[in-house]
Design goal:
This protein has 274 residues and is of the alpha+beta class. The protein has a 9-stranded mixed beta sheet, with helices on both faces. Helix 3 packs parallel to helix 7. The longest helix has 23 residues. The protein is globular, with a radius of gyration of 19 Å. The structure holds zinc ion. The site of zinc ion has 6 residues, from loops.
């Protein structure tokens, strides 16, 4: 889907990045400077009043189809929990040049970082892929490192996508409602690598959240930044139940497959996990 005019105010989107960062920190998905957020805006935005400093940077991949598009991206080494205090100091604003290989990076004089997040290659690849596929004019991508979901990805059986989803999405009736495609799984790849980027693009074609094995998660939304962060929270809550159950000798029943199917039938939800 695309957002319809009147578009959200620039300040509103900047603030939503701060709010999402704070929430990810509250759910222990962003220790230290872990995690990063980026947002694509496909409508004309005047950014120079907020971000008067201008540099030119090379993009990690050529995206000529996104020329003129705007990205808000968190700075490398910045703490997600602090963005809301001074969003402009923690976020850079990229406007893609006509050549598609470079972009103008606009920043605030209060800027607290030198480079954008090192995971921007995965962010940009996911944005470009999703925008090409759906034509959306808004797209948010959030990376976090939620403790319990990441812990489960260290256990081989939970890296099997069917096993992971059947075990995690059984703990709350809302789980299948919020994650009807389930959680994707990408095998471990070196952070920031082209391999991680490719695996992420692939997994996010068919899911709205993907676990990066032994590292964390990435989620996307074409509605809002908070919606993407919510998906991480839903997945992490499910993992928390699963960890509780493991710690208590697996005494919990969880919803049965028939119970989950009854919920889906009642609410008209398409799913192929249960
Ligand atoms: Zn990370």
């Amino acid at each position: 889907m695309s957002l319809a005019a009147p578009y959200p105010e620039f300040e509103e989107i900047v603030q939503s990045i701060g709010d999402a960062g704070l929430r990810l920190s509250e759910i222990e998905a962003s220790e230290g400077a872990a995690g990063n957020i980026s947002v694509y805006l496909g409508w004309p935005v005047e950014v120079r009043r907020k971000f008067p400093l201008e540099d030119t940077i090379d993009l990690p991949q050529a995206v000529p189809q996104l020329a003129g598009g705007t990205f808000l991206v968190t700075g490398s080494g910045r703490r997600l929990r602090e963005i809301h205090v001074d969003p402009l100091a923690n976020i850079g604003c990229l406007v893609v040049n006509a050549d598609g290989r470079t972009a103008r990076l606009y920043t605030s004089p209060r800027r607290l970082f030198t480079r954008l997040t090192s995971e921007f290659n995965s962010h940009l690849a996911v944005h470009a892929d999703q925008i090409a596929r759906s034509g959306t004019n808004f797209h948010a991508v959030v990376h976090g490192q939620p403790l319990q979901l990441t812990y489960l990805s260290h256990i081989a059986t939970y890296r099997d996508e069917t096993y992971l989803n059947q075990h995690l999405l059984r703990w709350q009736p809302e789980a299948i409602v919020n994650l009807p495609e389930g959680i994707g799984v990408a095998a471990f790849q070196v952070p920031g690598s082209p391999e991680l980027m490719a695996a992420t693009v692939e997994a996010l074609r068919t899911h709205r959240v993907v676990v990066w094995a032994k590292h964390g998660v990435m989620a996307r939304s074409d509605v809002s930044v908070k919606r993407a962060a919510d998906r991480i929270e839903y997945a992490e809550t499910a993992a928390r139940y699963e960890c509780l159950n493991l710690a208590h000798g697996e005494r919990g029943e969880g919803l049965s497959a028939a119970e989950v199917r009854a919920i889906c039938d009642f609410l008209g939800i398409q799913q192929s996990i249960f």
